[in-house]
Amino acid sequence: MADGPRPRVFLSYSRRDDERVNALQAALEQEGIRVWRDVEGIDAGEAWRARITDAVRNCDALVLAVTARSIRRDEVLNEVALAGEFHKPILPAFLDTVDTGIPDELRGVLSRLNRAELHKDFAAGVNLLVRSIRTHAAQHVPGRDTRTGFESLQRMGAAGVEALTTEYETALAAGRVDGATLVSLGQCHLFLGRYREAREVLRRAVATDPTSAPAAYTLAIAIVGGRRPRALRMSAAEEIARLLEKAVRLDPEPAHFEYLAALVKVDYYEGHGLLVPEPSVETLLARASAKKLDRGELARIFDAVEVDEGMWARIAIDA
After folding, report:
1. Domains along the chain?
2. How many CB atoms lie within 10 A of CB 313?
3. Which residues have CB under 8 Å from 25's CB, separation 6+?
4. pTM
5. CA 91, CA 114: separation in Å to the nearest integer?
6. Closest-CA residue to 250 (of 12, 28, 19, 54)
7. Which of 1, 38, 251, 263 is the most buried (most CB within 10 A)?
8. What are the residue ranges in the chain where pLDDT is below 50?
């Protein structure tokens, strides 16, 4: 298994191919690929449709398990269309020889020369698929609209961020209520210093997608709301700790979740002379130092959390 962040894929398939799809999922997970798969079914209702939309948007790539059954499944066509809308790579994994009956929507996707043909050689097909997934994962930041990366927002300036805010609000008004859109809108409000609006939107994001680490983390920033952590009430400091612990459970790889947790604990608990609850600041810093640091997220924290230079030095970040 390769070191580094684990890529995430959305697995689109027909439930009637479960046995072979199970084998594909197991092979990908053995290679360190995180697989999101619809195991409840589209009949679970609108909430589940929103979860599928969010899962496609949050993935590095969509893996299409190609069989004679799957290419005729409306839900598969919808998932492929979503991947196209979100500019996600679509990687066919052929579990059958499929030459006829291909819908027009899939002809371009299935006509690629470099195809993972697992039905001919499963191991070789998986290896090709894993290489493609890792290549695409290296070019994407999962779960994030790149326009709301902190550096991108800085380049836009206030007027550009206002326009982007309107775009997200229009999408939500039109019924596209998914966690990623809500997080992006919350990030715009944060950048503009609208902390109350950011908190409202991000609480909706957490409720809409309880599995979103970015939603929990960004809400934690919004709760600080441009103040020093020591100015918070204890209930707010405790909520921030819970949100960041949740973010780490959902996605243990980013460093910034634990750096923010350490920053809040240093300023709030140590600043008030209180006993610091576990995990300790030292434990958080040790964990974070072993992980990948996203400087853009560090800048987002620096912009929204008021601390002095000595406090940044305390947590050993070269800000």
Report:
1. 8-137 (3.40.50.10140), 146-314 (1.25.40.10)
2. 11
3. 11, 35, 37
4. 0.58
5. 10
6. 54
7. 263
8. 1-4, 41-42, 113, 141-143, 318-319
